[in-house]
Design goal:
The chain is α+β, with helices and mostly antiparallel strands.
Amino acid sequence: MIVQPFLDVEDLIADHLRSRVPDFPAEWSGTPVMTESFPEWSPGGEPKLTVRCEESSGNYPITQQSLLRISAWADDRDDAKVLAHLAHAALLEHGGDAHIVSVRQVDAVVAGFDSEIPETHASFTVLVVQRPS
């Protein structure tokens, strides 16, 4: 049996979001998407989206399921929520492709302020089911 690895789920989802960001309203259409948990960001900086895999499991070699947290970073709570909602909609519209079977909502957009994370952000989680490459 030939081992067929799964592609990096963070990269797959970040690439999908990067392809959709130009379709966002003008003020968000240049938003960078990164695969890191806590970006270098400070108030007054450009808004950002981050993609982080929190857990993976599955039925190898058939599928892999990964829980991903997508966070939007912006100057204020409302802007972070708007950006997160745009990313959320873009991911839930994913119709599947050669590597991703489905993207499903786990948690809706929640605006948050964590005392350990001084910036305002909003986040949501999705479950991504993958096929091996």
